[in-house]
Amino acid sequence: MNVARSPYNIEVDLTGVSGVTGSKVEVFLWNTGSQPVSPQYTLSKLIPASDNLKMYYNISPYVREYFTFTNWQNVYNSYDTDISTNFKVNVVFKKYKKLTDGTYTLLSTSSALNFMDGFNYYMEGFNTISSTVFLSEGTYFYNHDSGQLNTVITNMAGTFDVDLAVSDAIKYTNLSTGATHTVTATTAGIKTFSRVYLPNIAVGNKVEFLGGGSAVRWTGTFKPQCEPKYSPVAVDFINRYGSWARIFFQKAKTRNIEVKADSYKVNPSVLPYVPTSEGQVREFNKNGKETIKLNTGFVNDLYGEYIQELLLSEKVMLYDPQQEDGLAAAAYTPVIPKEKTLLKQKGINDGTINYTLSFDFAYDVISNVV
Fold it and tell me: Which residue in 13, 26, 43, 145 could disulfide with 94, CB within 3.0 to 4.6 Å?
């Protein structure tokens, strides 16, 4: 799987080719169905110099236009389900050389590539293909309240996506009994799996990706935490792999509002007597931004990297079961992390680890959409 938030560079190398003045690349993009007949974009360049016949095209910005994110699909008991076509883009590109007479000749056509809206870290190099499982290995915690239905958002452990070949498998192992449940892929593609096999929800499970149905290539562990005092908040975001990921903030939370307005001085309506009830200053364009401050509760060393992915995400959604904005029901809302710095805590240095993050709700309190 390729990622589109980092550059994906296509090289056209005409070294040793005579009679050329440049090149072009045709880019075909689609989410569903078959490859379009005509390219969505045609990019062209002249050769840099007569002794430098290499040209590079970054197609990532064009690929990103084809992603559409609304919110996590709230999958809680689904296994081997195709991901939404909005989260994946298919790409084919054709390379051409430009001759001195201005005509183009086809050099090559790529095979179909898949892209998701993830990114590479700098030290990983360029055009790096991401992991088969779109979640880092490690131990994750989720909220579980036996008094809640499994369909309540804050009682869902979350999901992970896997790029499966036929006969690959996902194996769930109950952390208490050791009982296993294995799902074998019958079709190839990017599939969504619940992090926890529903019968294991009260105790958690280990999840293994089995290449070819037997070779362990990835392991994740998902453990429940019950929070009887506070009301947990779920935060979903697009992670570094371009896949939906979930973090629970289990402990104390606070909400506040910042109100801003413009003001002006007014002349009194009656002179020379000045009505004191009118005042001298009035406000207009008044609106507010609401912020929520959350705490993860005690987590492990892995969460430093996990929180980093959240801060780097461009799509973050928050579910607070105790919505306090006058709505009849709790809302699943877009938010923007306020933090621009993160101290990655380590148990050996900091003892117990808790992360505190603040989020701005991504809209004004008073509706001003026109």
Answer: 26
